Structure prediction request, 509 residues.
Amino acid sequence: MAASERGFVVIGAQFVFFSITDLRTLKEVERGAYPVSTGEDIFATHEIEPETVDQLAVALRTIDRLMKDYGVAQVKVVGSHSFFEAENAQFVRDQLLSRTGLTVAMLTLSEESFYRTQAVLGKFPDFDKVTNSGTVLIDISSGSVELTAFADGDFGFSRNLSLGPLRVFEVMSDLQRTVPNPVEVMRDYIDSRLADFMRLLPKNQHYPHVILMGSALSVFGALIPTGQGTVEIDREGFKLLYRELTRASDQYLSEHYELTASETSQVLPTVLLVYRLIKSLNSEEIWISDLKLLDGLEVSAASAFGSKAVAIDPDHEILISARNLADRYMVDPKHRDFTVKYALQLFDRLKKLHGLGKRERLLLEIAATVTDIGAYVDTHKHYEHSDYIIQASELIGLTAPEQRMVATIARYHSSDTPQTDLSDLTEFNTARRLVIAKLAALLRVADALDASRQQKIEKIRVSLQDERVLLTATANDDVELERWSLNTKGEFFAAVYGLPIELKGKTRL
Prediction:
């Protein structure tokens, strides 16, 4: 086994996908899937049945033996968001650990969105060219639909809808047996769920291109030529396909497209969903891709490994997601950019003091970007509003604990201050409490440097001395308000780092 080979496993709603990948080259050594339909249990009864747990355990043990046969030492196993929707998901997770020795990590919706974006950025052919015009990536899993928009070649926004075809089928199954026109009823149901999404789309932005991907695209996957990862069709071609599939019998679908009974039952909701999205977006070209969440895990791991086969910045989409959230809540862009700039300067120049790494720097940049969004609700105690808005929003690429950390850092950037013993941060472990305190202290200083909201300071010099941290600012106006604000907010900095922080300013003539 090469030292760069890793194993990846995704427990989805209908399959357990796995791969063995050489991170150095991003080439797959082995790839496969075991059919285990957790989704049918979850969407029907909200729990994973014991028989399904048995099937999961068998699949995971088989995959684990294969990994060991290849000599793969590091295996990442994740459960999709739909898996953890089950009310007994934590019990099932513990049972799988005891029976297989494998720990199933939970993915948030924002993490899934991040990995899917990484998949297309790293593996979709001519992605930059396709996304020069407005493009929507539509990832369809059995339980949900993730819509990620790109404009001018760059990430725009992401939305998740609980509208996967298996979920729609389970919700509509009783109704389908009692109405004369189930296609029309299902179409109306899907349209009602899409209404809010369409309303929130950016104005005056056209999306002529659509990329379809995901684990629930079995019927479309049959259209991809052998040996190719994508196929392109135009809108008229898709209309013809839509008419064929919505009128076809289950027997025809099963035989012609080689679908299982479960996959056949999802054809109608899948085709209707895609057709209504394409019609609503007025898209002209459609790419059908066999990329899945599994591919995003591979690309992300290869990027972290330093592979030359992946030429993407994994933090780029995360930061754009944060800026989009700030824009949505009308944060003052000049103060935001000022705060981000000086928060990062303080972080970089005080590394010996805080001892934190690259990931913590990213969390600080995100917190500095979104810290004032609560003012959209009310400027009074806006930091409290920032806290719950951040926790309720989709910031792609962050784990659930990281998103809560960002929200807490934002809460304490202003006049609200955590207790010196950090006893009010009980939901975090000791290590995370310290990170929150250190980053919040830096953010408070950066925010104080623009207390007047006039961006008076043009540059600062940071000097770490034995008895203090000295900031020497060059400004275009008097900085007495900033100095006064720092004296107040700097008290928490001194408590965290054990050194007072002071500001000296000179006005540029």
Notes: The chain has three domains: 5-107, 125-290, 316-507. Residues 316-507 form a domain with the Hypothetical protein af1432 fold (CATH 1.10.3210.10).
